[in-house]
Amino acid sequence: MDCLIYYTSALIISFSLFYAYAKYKLSYWNRRGVKSPPTHLFFGNFKDCIMLKKSPGDKIREIYNSADPDDPYIGFYIFHKPLLILRDHDLIKQIMIKDFDNFPNRRFGSGSQMDPIGLDSILSMPQPRWKYVRNKLTPVLTGQKLKNMIPLMIENGKSMLNFIENLPTNEDGWSEYEVKDISSRYITDVLASLTFGININSFDDNETAFCKTGVTVFRGFMRGIIFIIQFFLPDWDFLVVPFIKKPANYFRNIFWDSMNTRERLGFKRGDMIDSMLALKNGKQNPIYKFEGDNLVAQPSSLYLAGFETTAIAIAYVLHDLGHHPEHQDTIYNEIQTQLSGKELTMDLINGLSFLDSVVIESLRLHPPLPITDRITTRDYELNSGLIIEKNVPVYVSINGTNQDPKYFSNPQDFIPSRTEMKEKKFYESLAFGIGPRSCIAQRFALLIIKVAIIIIISNYTIFYKTNKEYDNKVIHVFTYTPDLYVKFKKRN
Asked: According to its UniProt record, which protein family does this protein belong to (predicted)?
């Protein structure tokens, strides 16, 4: 009996102490005069995400939308960790661009010494190494380098056209297929060629080791857990290492196979392997030496950052055009007028202004990465008097900002002409992370997207009505990947 009383008392005291601790931690924003939504005593505002009932992007957009229209920010919690969502354009620009020196790092990423490829990725690398590596990698994706990559993209596009042409057709000549599968195969081929220097025709065989490894990285229940840990609970990233060891070893092996072959035979292909070879043989800096896994990390980062996001972007552009045949016709006519049988070049692509507007509007509605983050290196005072304390992360809800009725009339509608507004560049850059820390491969990604759209629209009419229903309520852990079925019909 005494033992029962003892354990009961200990349990009550322990719970009372935890309750008091949790309530204090979860009053962080209230004590600073910042609004925040109701919280769970243990999970904070992230219970639905931890239970995989909502994606992190959707949850952060939900919190964004729960604020009053004119609130410049709103607080929230992951477990008991306080975080801040920015809601005002000027404040976003101030923190992400103007005062970047206060917010140079991301919370996202691997910090585990057991994951050297993730640790040395430019996506998550902290200052000052990040700036040095970015400056070294920027020449890899210059305008001239991108021009040289267009023929490789076109070559992969031929396989894509051949795949669509061989799809079963009905009596009216229409073929039905899921466009994200098509765009994923196309991106696999393009990125395998341009980042690792290998040819993978996934339209003929989608079961190669390279294709399977890409699927392993981005899909499946366990990968969803890994993304949540790396983006929102990076202090726990040691838990993910056993699950990414096999893909990391695979990318490491194919990278060094390509590097060693290229160095031994002495030929150049105009891809990232050439650039990595030049960095390997160039003058090294103690800040960051381009050797070993430091080299492997960079093409791996480009592949991992570009595979799923760019595939989703292409799929949504095609899906949006399938819903809007009037815009599809405008793009087709623009392509025919500008190209008129000419070889596809960077200058001609840049001259397709309506295509550019369509891509940016589709990215506004369906940003492949719905959130971006930064973390303070020192206390930072806002004009409102709020002090963002050192190491408190700030987030931008990209889909929340992009669809805020404060900034857009009819924000859910696909209206390419709206991107002619003065804020076009803001929304274009927001889709890629905004500011100095934005995606280094933004121009590269946009080029891949546009080349794919040009190739398909030049040869096929797209229509959205199919026998498959589009389920917009499907839960996806990080990126949006609902099934997007469209119909294709060969143009005369």
From this structure: Belongs to the cytochrome P450 family.
